[in-house]
Write a structure and sequence with these properties.
mainly alpha
Length: 387
Amino acid sequence: TLTTYKYLQSTQLTHTYITSVALVAITYFVMALACGTGKCGVVVLGCNLTAVFICELAMVEADRWHMIRGSVILLLMKLSSIGFDIDAGVVEPPDLLCFSGYSLAPSTMVFGPFVTLSQYQQRKNTVFGFSVLVRVCNSIVLSYMTVLLSTCVLSDLPNALSNKLVKAYFTAQSFRASHYFVCYLSQSSALIAGYGTDIRVAEPAQVEIPKSMSRVAISWNRPMHFWLKTYIYKKSRGLGQFVAALFTYTASSILHGINFQLPAVLLSIFIFSYVEARLREELAVYLDCCMGDRKSREICHHSNNAFRRAINGLFVLINVIQLAYLGVLFDSSPIQVEGYSWLNVLRYWTDLYWCGHLLALIGFLLTYVLKRANAARAQPQAKHRSD
């Protein structure tokens, strides 16, 4: 309890609520004007992003903004989701009381997670039974275990290590453990508030044993992944899968703030996951083997699956290196308050010999070679069929 109180105290809760109430008031007025146009979601999202940019660049000090940014991001996701759901006919335009109650709900405002307006309206039907109590207790215990792991075990361990890559791995793991603390705490608050027993914020096992970088992106924060997939990716999928995925990662970068550090990491995750997905596709054709990062729901028609586990194990090892490479930027340096500049990011990655991007480049070249080989192999088969 004392740890939670200190955390709440350090986030400048007063400034969070002042900023949030102002955003809610502005958004409700804009939403009232945009309803019925079919562009309510886009207008609300644009209005909120403009307000956030103004706050970050001109109105709020950098250290204070860093403390309240998470809550503002959650609020922006909530407000824009209402606009998109109204356009899709999923919900009716809410009245001011429902709108402000959903937006400023204490159970999801500080730690999260993101929930939709429909989930908020249906929470009163949830029965707080024994199974919910067990999940709440489990989430609280796991939250304190991860914060102790992050602050008391992993924070000082890198200083005792000499190998750069191993040191980067434990630095990144300390950051990930602190993230799990917030996720489990937000999960417990959402369960107590009645958002159902199936709510799950993060999946640490999927991140710590990364079968693919795309699984890491999904499991890092499942509610945020749902928001990005539903309101960004699916809305822009008509432009093509690659463009939609790029828009999704760009939106995530913008939401996380205007600094070089986070966009660089998120853009790198997009590149790594895209190259890995294409490499898996070409390997599947070349080896006639299932190369997906999870079991296919359909019956497998590949004739050779002997290499599947070995190659997937190699992908896990590569992704562990990638997570260490990307996570080394999130150390306990005081500069983290404002985010690293591009010079600091380049310095950290240069110390690791750019191994993450070099692995992605090797994967890209291997994909190109396999694609040419698969095309050359397919030509005689097509000619034989035509004959």
